[in-house]
Amino acid sequence: MERVSWYWPGSPGIPADDRGLAYGDGLFETIRVTADGPVLLERHRDRLLSGAQALGIPFGGCDYQQWLDEARARSLLEAGETDQIVKLTLTRGSGGRGYRIPDQPQPRLLTSVMSAPPVPRQPVSVRFCRQPVSPAPGRAGFKTLERLDQVLASQELPPECFEGLMADHEGRIVEGTRTNLMLVQGHETVTPPRHHLAVAGTLRDWLVAVLPDQGYTVTEQRLSRLDVQGGGLLLLNSVMGAVPVGQLDSVSLAVTPETLKLAQWIQQQIGLQHLDS
Amino acid sequence: MERVSWYWPGSPGIPADDRGLAYGDGLFETIRVTADGPVLLERHRDRLLSGAQALGIPFGGCDYQQWLDEARARSLLEAGETDQIVKLTLTRGSGGRGYRIPDQPQPRLLTSVMSAPPVPRQPVSVRFCRQPVSPAPGRAGFKTLERLDQVLASQELPPECFEGLMADHEGRIVEGTRTNLMLVQGHETVTPPRHHLAVAGTLRDWLVAVLPDQGYTVTEQRLSRLDVQGGGLLLLNSVMGAVPVGQLDSVSLAVTPETLKLAQWIQQQIGLQHLDS
Question: Which residue has the higher pLDDT, B36 or B125?
Fold first, then answer.
């Protein structure tokens, strides 16, 4: 018997006793595949593997390599005309007595494919959400299957609103429901610290690593409502890239030429559509 | 098409895009069925329905009644010799764009049956867990599918340890991984307040309602480590009833005659096995 159970598009359904379903006992990644191939693939791998280690789910580098080989054999990660998203869901599998984990967990890795959402070509409209976000101590940043904060915040968004900004219990602005945040002023950028985040995005982490080489300063610092109302706000995730914010609730935000320039550089680097300039 | 999708023991697996699996977007209940029938059935119903309302999952009293009729037709809730547990898992179903919920959610209700764990016949041994518990603001007490705190706390427990006590981020003792807590001193009882709980147990809620008529005072008050180390500690859940604690880490706890008496009265009321006296 293989240690990991693999589920591919078209596989039968998941057993009702799966611990991912029962307890949120697992992790996920959504990987965008563009005309240039998969976006930030190594960073998705690293987050998945470090999350699995933190939760104690036995899924390591060799398992990931096995998935990668099979996904490539199935042409799921091939650069193509049609943009798509490959979603990975890793669960601890079935078994155990209640919350207690089984002696020999047999993880499940589910792979599904969906079409990518369009990348906005204009600055977007966002709002402050009432639903707070509560990063769990000890697993801040990992993309676990516990995402009810984000689901409930999304319920507050009318269709024309692109994203909602979520605050922690102290009122600091932490992130969007599906994006990280970055403030741009000239060549200075500010983003909330990693250990305060509910999800540490792959694009955010990559930018923190590479922006200094591009002549930007990167400061990891908590943000207030006033900070984000000052303009120069970018939404970040690896599925849509960098999206400038033009309106926050009823207030128009300045989208400076520097902000647009950085957003377009990011889109170019990861092979995503440019904004209209 | 029926609005709710029903899954019974033996049904095919769950679609991989179920939002319960993807985001913890759902709720569950575990109902013990004894020789007297289902334990605290109405309180399980009430918690499930109020949780569904809080999350905005369209599952109401008529849907529950439909489940109850079908479960009875399948003899799942019949009083019997063999004790069993009927587990209900309610999810928001499939669909939506990412975290955003679909316009017309089609919830799933999964019913599964398992054998009940033995009820301890002697006071049990417990320990303090390092893993904290973080009740989510706005959904404290509801039994959502987000239970990673409890899974990770359970990993700290050696096999001979019956339960782990979890503290909040301020160090107050909130509950066990699968039980609520009650301190008994004579005819005075103390239990942590409902809005601080990760799970508001049906047995705890029932006791808060009925104990005053039995001549007990019930005080809802936060507990410190010192409080629970003072003895007279009962673990509560509707699957095992009331279980006295005889040891906490390396310290023996007093199990007073009053504590034993209350525990036995509770077991008798809900049709569960008595402790050895």
Answer: B125
Instruction: Tokens for A121, please give them.
Output: 């070509």
Token pair in block for residue B227: 């409080």
Token pair listed for B53: 């309302």
Please state, in angstroms and rounded to a whole number, the distance separating the CA atoms of residues A75 and A127.
Answer: 39
Enumerate the β-bridge partners of residue B164. Answer: B127
Interface test with A, best of B100, B108, B144, B166 (most A CBs within 10 A): B100
Tell me the per-residue pLDDT of B70-101, one tens digit each, with 9 for 90 and over. Answer: 999 999 999 876 789 999 999 999 998 899 99
3-state secondary structure of A254: coil
Using the 8-state DSSP alphabet, how is residue A77 labeled?
S
10 Å Cβ neighbour count for A127?
A: 18
Shortest distance, CA B145 to any CA of chain A (angstroms): 5
* Minimum-distance CB partner of A177 among B15, B99, B144: B99
Per-residue pLDDT tens digits for A176-186: 999 999 999 99
Tokens of B65: 């009644």
Chain B residues touching residue A137 (CB < 8 angstroms): 132, 134, 169
| Residues 6 or more apart whose Cβ sits within 8 Å of residue A169 | A132, A134, B137
ipTM for the whole complex: 0.95
C-alpha dihedral sign at B172, B170, A194, A259 = positive
Mean pLDDT value across residues B218-233: 96
Question: Residue B222 has what DSSP assignment?
Answer: -
